[in-house]
UniProtKB/TrEMBL annotation:
Superkingdom as given in the UniProt entry: Bacteria
Protein name: Uncharacterized protein
Amino acid sequence: MTSNIRVCIYPKDVQRITGKTYRQARLYLHKIKTSLNKEPHQLLSIEEFCDYSGLQLKHVLRCIIG
């Protein structure tokens, strides 16, 4: 059986990854959404976050999961 890995990234995840405050993390995700021409109701995937931030997916997943 496979483990459940989330597809979306949330401000709390960005806060944990970058060490920013919750508000800064929320604003950073908003900046990414604006850059990708996403609407406010649309979610941001972990892959999109990694592409924008330049971080490797395996490092991000390690911070989010463990």
